[in-house]
């Protein structure tokens, strides 16, 4: 059975959707560890489901931080960035070609890059009067949100949308997209 490392920085709703999909036999995988780069609510999903949880300290020397990531990522077949806000250094990426994937709440290459996360993405979509938006699962390369696209899902932008309403409507679509993408990869 394929093993997953899931990396988080926030609420962990994406993590929870993966846990639920596995428990409901919709995803034949095992989450062997959850890694966070800051103290965050998502840790409770790991605790509640007795999944080993590792909290990284971002203030340590970069080389040491990278080595910790490398040591952790070696423990699983796949690494899933599920709302993980740290940019992963090239020295880590090159150890794991085509093994680290990310979910991003836009139709990449649109609205990706440094600082483009969460509601900032949806605000930019609204500011630019886009007719559609969506989510992308992609391999992680040494750029930010630039890796090879694995899967995308598109939704219409409504005339009365707000960043919050887009986020709410997109969340289950993102989660399903990620589950299906992992299922196809493993
Ligand atoms: C989602 O928008 C996902 O695309 C992004 O992080 C958000 C989910 O955060 N990368 P969380 O799973 O609730 O912590």
Share of helix, binned: 25-40%
- Distance separating the two termini: 9 Å
Q: Give the distinct bound molecules.
A: 5-O-phosphono-beta-D-ribofuranosylamine
Q: What is the number of strand segments?
A: 7
Order of strands across the main sheet = 3-2-1-4-5-6-7
The biggest sheet, with number of strands, parallel, antiparallel or mixed sense and barrel status, is: 7 strands, mixed
- Tally of individual helices: 6
Oligomer: single chain
Helix-and-strand structural type:
alpha/beta
Low-confidence stretches: none
The gross shape turns out to be globular
| Average pLDDT, all residues | 96
Order of helices and strands: EHEHEHEHEHEEH
- Rg for CA atoms: 16 Å
Provide the β-strand percentage band.
Answer: 15-25%
Overview of the structural elements:
This protein has 186 residues and is an alpha/beta fold. The protein has six helices and seven strands, in the order E-H-E-H-E-H-E-H-E-H-E-E-H. Strands 3-2-1-4-5-6-7 form a seven-stranded mixed beta sheet. The mean pLDDT is 96.
Task: List its traits.
186 residues; alpha/beta; 7-stranded mixed β-sheet; 6 helices; 7 strands; 35% helix; 23% strand; globular; binds 5-O-phosphono-beta-D-ribofuranosylamine
Q: Helices and strands in order, then pairings?
A:
Blueprint: E1 2-8, H1 13-23, E2 29-36, H2 43-48, E3 53-55, H3 62-73, E4 78-81, H4 90-93, E5 100-104, H5 119-127, E6 132-139, E7 149-156, H6 163-185
Parallel strand pairs: 1-2, 1-4, 2-3, 4-5
Antiparallel strand pairs: 5-6, 6-7
Helix pairs in contact: 1-6, 5-6
The protein binds 5-O-phosphono-beta-D-ribofuranosylamine.
